[in-house]
Design brief:
Bound molecules: uridine-5'-diphosphate-xylopyranose
Number of helices: 17
Structural class: alpha/beta
Radius of gyration: 24 Å
Strand content: 5-15%
Distance between the termini: 68 Å
Number of strands: 14
């Protein structure tokens, strides 16, 4: 098929590259000249496992190209919308990029083309897309993405399920054919249902993690091993062991935005949704709890706190809505000095010192704090780390350091100060 993908961010680029890999002719369209030029030269602008190789193969086989010209979608029978929908100050997604793209598509699209929205959009947006296109021959479908950053390509090629929202039988059939080779679980639903599936899935996972982090706090205060508790909980298939790892809080470009949008939708509809609201509040409480716990472990005037990890999770260079960044900013506001190392993060919070290696970050530090679960942190030479710290102690929010190796190295793995609550009972 001839496919156009408008927007070459995480979702659009993965979609374009993956469809080319599956044998389709794909044109990626983006307003960013620099990005388009780099992509046409095979330079992948994001850290994403496997993507550079498949991008290069698509370009080599002339199945894939990138342009800034909206007119390029005239040749496509399927046009994917993969544009950003950032949260506006009111908490509702900002749909202006989608509206502009619809005006362009309306001008040039071939008769009968299918316009498929992959962006996460407010409920009712796909019906608006129909109006914004203003052409009765164009068919509209919603096809939400469930890609995780860091594993986006494999998530695309081996999805748990594909959701297609449309009321147009022909569009449903074409999209079913498009995905037939990569999924046996294709859910054809209405437009609104597809929009809600995306929000409900992300808000559910975020709620699960807020709950998990609350259990981890209770474990710390009762001197219980949270890994043992959560492993026992996750063995129940109804609960599942996935998304059961405590951390510094959930973040990234999707969970915070989507959970907030779903909560706002409920409020706009005059509905109480206390569970969704509490999941958001609980995540803020958790991030504050971690920062307070660190604060109580180190004298504010002492040597810098060493931080390992700034991205919102491992496998990405993305620091958008990263709990690690939020915690570093809280520590800086409290008056701590912070030296941070991350293997991929593009930015460092203002006021923190950027370290070039894990070792550089910890040398002379009073405390090591691990905030992102990079595999390399687990492989670090803890003896060397402990030897060069002023006080060899670590607070590991991601459980990446091996407790036995830390003990042998003389690096004390600290529990949170909340543990003392039990002792003083
Ligand atoms: C998410 C959804 O998983 C994906 O389906 C959707 O389409 C986009 O949003 P992503 O933002 O890439 O993907 O991140 P994800 O892997 O889901 O992690 C989200 C947050 O939860 C991260 O901050 C991560 O560190 C945290 N997390 C995840 C945990 O703290 N513990 C876990 O066990 C899993």
């Amino acid at each position: 098929m001839n496919i156009a993908v408008i927007g070459t961010g995480y979702v659009g680029l993965t979609t374009a590259v993956a469809f080319a890999h599956l044998g389709h002719d794909v044109t990626g369209i983006d307003i960013d000249h620099g990005r388009v030029e780099a992509l046409n030269r095979g330079r992948c602008p994001i850290v994403e496992e496997g993507l550079p190789q498949v991008l290069a193969a698509g370009l080599d086989q002339s199945r894939l190209s990138f342009t800034t010209e909206a007119e390029a979608c005239a040749a496509a029978s399927i046009i994917f919308l993969c544009l950003p929908t950032p949260a506006s100050p009111s908490g509702h997604p900002d749909l202006s990029a989608i509206e502009v793209a619809c005006a362009n598509i309306s001008r040039v699209a071939a008769e009968g083309a299918i316009v498929v929205c992959k962006s996460t959009v407010a409920v009712g947006t796909n019906k608006k897309i129909q109006q914004w296109l203003g052409r009765s021959d164009l068919r509209v479908a919603s096809n939400p993405e469930f890609l995780r950053e860091g594993t986006a390509l494999s998530d695309f090629l081996q999805p748990d399920r594909v959701v297609i929202g449309t009321t147009d039988a022909q569009a449903a059939e074409v999209l079913r054919l498009l995905y037939r080779d990569i999924s046996d679980d294709i859910n054809i639903v209405g437009l609104t249902e597809a929009e809600l599936i995306k929000y409900a899935a992300n808000a559910f996972l975020a709620t699960k993690l807020s709950y998990v982090n609350e259990i981890a706090r209770i474990c710390a205060a009762t001197d219980a091993d949270s890994a043992a508790v959560l492993s026992g909980v996750g063995s129940d298939h109804r609960i599942s062991a996935q998304f059961l790892n405590p951390g510094p809080g959930w973040g990234g470009s999707c969970f915070p935005k989507d959970t907030l949008a779903l909560h706002h939708l409920a409020l706009d509809l005059g509905l109480d949704a206390p569970v969704i609201g509490a999941a958001i509040e609980s995540n803020d409480v958790h991030t504050a709890y971690v920062a307070d716990a660190i604060d109580r472990l180190v004298d504010r005037k002492a040597s810098p706190i060493a931080v390992w990890g700034l991205t919102f999770k491992a496998g990405t260079d993305d620091t958008r809505d990263s709990p690690a960044v939020a915690i570093v900013e809280k520590l800086l506001a409290m008056g701590h000095r912070v030296t941070a190392f991350d293997p991929e993060a593009q930015t460092t919070p203002a006021g923190a010192i950027r370290a070039s290696t894990t070792h550089h970050a910890t040398t002379g530090a009073d405390l090591l704090v691990v905030l992102t679960e990079w595999a390399d942190f687990a492989k670090a030479d803890l003896r060397r780390v402990a030897r060069h710290m002023r006080r060899p102690q670590a607070f590991d929010t991601r459980a990446v350091l091996d407790p036995a190796a830390a003990r042998e190295a003389g690096l004390a793995l600290l529990k949170t100060p909340m543990d003392t609550a039990l002792a003083s009972c």
